[in-house]
Amino acid sequence: MSVVQSRRLLNIVSLMGIAVSISLTIYFYHLGVFKDVNSLQQLVGSSPIAGPLIFILIQIIQVVIPIIPGGISLAAGVLIFGPYWGFAYNYLGICIGSLILFLLGRHYGKLLITHLVSDKVYQKYNHWLDDQSRFEKMFALAIFLPVAPDDALCLMASLTNISFKKYSAIIFLAKPASIFLYSWALLQGGSFLSHLLVH
Length: 199
What we know:
The chain is mostly helical and 199 residues long. It is 80% helix and 0% strand. The termini are far apart.
């Protein structure tokens, strides 16, 4: 197979993957899983095997196609599956989604990124790209702490010379802390509001 043919095949596979992702997103959206935690719980809580797989798929989709704030699905995972399995499924889905996002950005380039990242966010973090070494440090810190738009930065990372291996290491090593902190904060906030409403 020639280089041209292999690239053409890769493009076809990528487009098919995007089409399947969009179709699943529309299907899950019509089911209401992106708007209602109860709908999500009914969908994924009925089967001990299919449920977690569907939830992980939903997490992957929400990273690649940001329909809802990631914090909502993070909290939903913990509420539905408990703190340990919920954390594991959140971690797996978000990491896979982050790797896919990077590969899409690396393959399709700045054109895709400008469509998925707002001008405001892009301009805010664009200066990070000027210094490769500084970017990697700032990127790792941003992924570690839940204070920056992770998905946008993952896409912007694909514009740098960072290797996929190093990018993956940052994602797998830094994500657990932000997932835990985000989930804990949302759950604590929900418990506090529930306590206020009851009393």
